[in-house]
Structures are given as C-alpha cells and as structure tokens.
Amino acid sequence: MSRIDEAIKAKIDKRTKLESMGVSVHPHSFNKTHSIEQARLSEGSVVTTAGRVQAVRTHGSVIFFDLQDGAISIQVMVRKNVVGDDLFDILQLVDAGDFVGTTGEVGKTKTGEISIVADSVTFLGKALRPVPSEWNSAENKEARFRKRYLDMLVNNDVRKVLDSRWKVLREIRAFLQDEHDFTEVETPVLQPLYGGTNATPFTTHMKALDTTFYLRLAPELYLKRLIVGGYEKIFEIARNFRNEGIDQTHQPEFTMIEWYEAYADYNRMMDVAEELLVHLAMKLHEKKTIIVGDHEVNIGKKWRRLTMIDSLKEFAEIDFNMATDTELMSLLEKNNLTLTGEFTRGKALFELFDKLVAPQLIDPIWIIDYPRDVSPLAKVHRDNPDFAERFEAYIGGKEIMDGWSEVTDPIDQRRLFENEQSRMRSGDTEAHPCDEDFLEAMEYGMPPLGGIGIGIDRLVMLLTNTWSIREVIAFPTLKPKNDSPKAPKQSVKEEEKPTESTSALPDRAEAQALLEKYIKNEALRHHCYMVAQAMEAYAADLGEDSDLWYQAGLLHDLDWEMFPDEHPNKAITEILVSYPSQMLDAIAAHAPGRTGKQPETQIERFLFACDEMSGFLHAVSLVRPEGFSGMKPKSVKKKMKTTAFAANVSREDMEQGFELINKSPDEHIGFLLEVFGKKE
C-alpha cells in the first residue's frame, strides 16, 4: 500500500470513529460571522469564524489549530477544561485539511501570538486526502494545472494572481459603467456565421435546428448590430474561442473585452483605454508604475503615438517610403520573414514592424495608422487611402490592445467582405465570411464609431508581470489525461511496432540547411545535434526509422532562437509544414506545457526523454576536463540532486522521461553517455 493510500485509510478510519461518536462530519451549514482577517483585528471581542485546518498540535490538555480562510490564518487554542472531555476527544480526530468552526474570544498567547481562545468548536468537513505540501507534486507544472485547486491551496502566489484577475474584471466594469456611462451587454456564443476577426473557428452541430453553428471568435458584429439598434456606448466581457495553437500567450478559450462608442474615432478610443490602464494599475498596485519583465514602466505619463512607418524608421532605421519593393523583399528574406499570399507593401511593412520594432517597445506607446491590407475591418485613413485608422498599444514589447475607427459605410464593408471571400476561395481558412444579415443591418444606418478589443488574459499577465497565460487562467485548457496514458511497464520493444517510415521526409541536407538558417547560436545548435544523435541511436536500437528520429531531434528547437514566445508552434505550423505528421507531433509533445500535447507515441516519448537529459549531460561534460570520457551515471545522478547546478534544466522533465521510455536512470543515462562518448 502506498503512503497516499495509507493516509487515506487513516482518515477514513477517523471519519468512521467520528460518526460512531455521533458527529456529523459534513453538516449542512455554519453561522460564520467573521472572516479570519476580521477576527485577527478583533482582539478582546468574541468572534465566530471557520476555515480549513492547516496544522494541529496537541500539548496535554490543550489543542492548537492553525485555521485558514483564503490566505489568512489564525491560531485557535482549545482547552480541555473549557470544552469538556467529549468534545476534546472528538477534536483529537481532526487532521490538517479538515474544516472546523469555532467561537471564542480573540487574545494573545504568552508568546504574543494572536489566537482565538475557543469556547466551542464545530466539525464542518472531513478531508480524505492529505493536502500536498509546497515541495511535492502540486509544484509539478503539469500536476499544478490539472489540479488547480491544490495549486491554489499550496501556492499563495497563484491566488494572488487570480485575485488580481477578478479585481481587474470588477474594476473594468466600474470604470466603464460608473465613469463613462457604458452599458454592459451580452451577445451569442453560438453563432450561425463566425466573424469579427480572422481566425479558425470551433464548429458544432445544433440538433434542435439541424444546423451547423460556430463558437464565437469575437462579439464584434453583434455589438455593432446593437449600435444600429440605438445603443451608443456598450461593452461586453466575452468568452471567445479560436481553434488554433496553444503557447505561452495563447489559449483556444480566452476572455476579452470589446467596447464601442458612437460618434468617436480611434483618437477617442486611445484616450479612454489609456485612462483605463492607469485606473487598473492604481487599483491593483496603488501607483502608476508596473513591473514588466525586468523593467519598471511608468504608464501614468502621456503615451507616445507613433505611426507604423515612423516606428520602423526610428527603431529599425528603415525608411519605408524610400524603399523599393525589391528592397523590401530583400529585407523580408534577410529577416526570415514570409508573407501570406501575394506580396504587398502593406504586408511587408507589418511583418517588418512585428519582427524588428515590436520587441523594442518597452515604454507605453500607441502604434497607429496600419496598412489597409492588414486591417480589413478598420476605416480608411482620412488622409491616406493606403492606410487605416487602426492602433495597437505596446508595453514591454507586447501588444496589449487593438482597435480602430470602425467602418460604418455598408458599401465599403461589403467590398471588404468580398475581398475576404476571394481569400477564402484561395484556401485561406481564416478568411472572414460575408455576413449578409450584418450588411443589411448596416444599411439601416450607423453613426461614426470607434471600437477596441483587449485580451483580459494578456492584460492580467501585464499587470501582474506573469508571462504565461496558463498562470492567469483558473483552469487553462489541457489535453484530457485519459487520452495521454503513461508508458506501459512492459518492454517498449515488445509492446510497440516500429513507427511507419515515410517517403515524404526531406533529406538530412535540407534539415541541416534549416538548422543553419534559423539557429545562429552555437550552443543551441550543439544541443540540437546531441538530441539528433541520441534519437538516431535509439531508433537503431528499437528498429525505428533512423532518418525520421534523427531529424525530429535535429529540428525540435528550430524556432526557439528567433521566435521564443511561439516555440514550438511557429516551427510546426509555418516552417516544417512539409514534414511528416509523426515528426511534427513529436516536436509538439516535447513541449507539452506550450502545446497541450502530451508524449504518447514512441517517437514522442523518446524525444521528450532525450531532450532535457542531453542538455544536462552536456552541462556536466563542461565542468569535467575530460568531458564525456569516463563519465558514469552515478556522477550524473549526483549532479541531478544539486538543484543549483544547471538550474534551467528541469529535473521533473528528466524524471518523467525515465518513466515515459520505461528505463531506469542508469539505463537511459548510460545509453546516452555511450552515444556522446563515441561522438566526442
């Protein structure tokens, strides 16, 4: 029996004893009159409070509980001569994790600790599993997100971030409704025609109507219908869904706010949005500065407004107006940028800005006046028909807000929809369909209109300096655990057939060329070669496709240097599209925290196991004069226990790797040492 099973059995035994003593282990209610925070401020008063027991200490005829609600705790002191023998016996069956309520006077112990001296204690809930301590499985990233409730219990920082999220939502509503007289509205989540942005929708079938519906990409077109219907200042905090990749800043289900104001243009929208962000910073931090990465950013001063063309000149020293098409194409190639569809100067401007300028925009800035051909829903610029009155806010090198002066002319909107239809016929799955009902609504007349969209998840990331979207969502999207079973305990060789080879695999020379194009850092290149060698050796040992496994190892970090925030999705969806799906799945599964894909197939599990361990072995070799020569698994395992050594290499991932490939540390490490020793 495992220790967890033993602990559960012990708790069930205590529950049985409590029931035999006439105790209701899960009563219906309790009259809690004070939070623990209020109780701590009520010295000299009698309070009634309740919470989860964090710790229990018995000293003869006195029991001490540490009682917690939220992140605040207080000590409860229970004297046998006050509560009586029967209750005192009951309380000796209380464990950490149980819920109790108590009434008593708040005072201080001889050591000066604020405590409730209990007159009565009521049992409110028996926990059957031990709450994990902060150093065990609840700290593992995968376990943390799967069992988020434990993450909240164990890690106060998690609760702080989520509390900030709820406060941001509350304050956005207060700001727009109370200070700017906006009305909060609701629009459909299930829509017969998707729209509002260029993205791939989730599709479902409604049985009652025998019709295909789509989960909302954005609420925009329905909000604009409300403007036609007579509303002038509206907003919606909407749950949106996009059937696209998962990475550090994107989830398929996410929250955003859109608001629209009649008779306003993009200048007015920027003014209000800037004011909102200052309001949120003051409510969360009580100051107008926020920490973004390693930078302290002042959002209280007036934000700069810079056209996209001027930003390219200022931050990248590229004079767009003077550059020829040929020169722009050369700049795109030099920076490893490719355009979707045919070349246009507008697309080139946007891609060059996104690559060369955006990461440098640390202080708050509005980038305005975007090319018209990358802004299909924005109103044409009043002074230049090649551009649109569109803006984006950048802070800390991240895009935070997006909006524009809205198209209100139904004829112009129809032309824009027709352009999108042309893209759709050319195979663009993200093209915007033509919404005839929306066009008809516009034909009844629309006032001048400004609009803006802000991703709540990314906004909370900014305000809390938490740069993983999963950390700011209570329950982020994960692949169901049942679909990703752990490696069987039987021999991998016996249980699995070799992965089918494929003739679609490009040759190694092409893979080598890709590596040299996208990875300039010699250390990262060396790591990729090591993983490739490890995968090739395991493929030979298992009777697998050596070329496929070698190239999976060689290219698994292809986009890490140039696109760290989009790794590995950038490589999978854009750079390596001609490669076999088995290889792309393996690359996705080597970073499950970013892609949501767990290692399942043999190539996926071995790539996961070889990646982190190869990096660690290289680190060990660097501190040994003889390198890999004479290195033993025993010395490597000793280094693994020293967390300060190669601290960026995940011990959890290495341990998971052993389990995934059903090999002991000695077996896996020994195999890799033999491979790398020969290559050295």
Instruction: Calculate Rg over CA atoms.
Output: 30 Å
Strand numbers in spatial order across the main sheet: 6-10-11-18-17-16-15-14
- The CATH architecture of the largest domain would be 2-Layer Sandwich
Number of helices: 26
Gap between N and C termini:
46 Å
- Could you say how many structural domains there are in total? 3
**Given this structure, which CATH class of the largest domain is correct?**
Alpha Beta
Strand content: 15-25%
Query: Which descriptor suits the 3D outline?
Result: globular
Largest sheet: 8 strands, mixed
Low-confidence segments, given as residue ranges, are 135-139, 483-503
CATH topology of the largest domain: BirA Bifunctional Protein, domain 2
Quick overview of this protein structure:
This protein is α+β, with helices and mostly antiparallel strands and 680 residues long. The chain has 26 helices and 18 strands.
Polypeptide structure, described:
42% of the residues lie in helices and 19% in strands. The chain is an alpha+beta fold and 680 residues long. The protein has 3 domains: 3-125, Beta Barrel (OB fold (Dihydrolipoamide Acetyltransferase, E2P)); 160-303 and 364-471, 2-Layer Sandwich (BirA Bifunctional Protein, domain 2); 508-677, Hypothetical protein af1432 (Orthogonal Bundle), CATH 1.10.3210. It has an 8-stranded mixed β-sheet with strand order 6-10-11-18-17-16-15-14, sandwiched between helices. Strands 1-2-3-5-4 form a 5-stranded mixed barrel. A hairpin with a 5-residue loop joins strand 4 (99-108) and strand 5 (114-125). Helix 17 runs parallel beside helix 19, helix 19 crosses helix 21 and helix 23 (602-622) crosses helix 25 (651-660). It is globular, with a radius of gyration of 30 Å. It starts with a helix and ends with a helix.
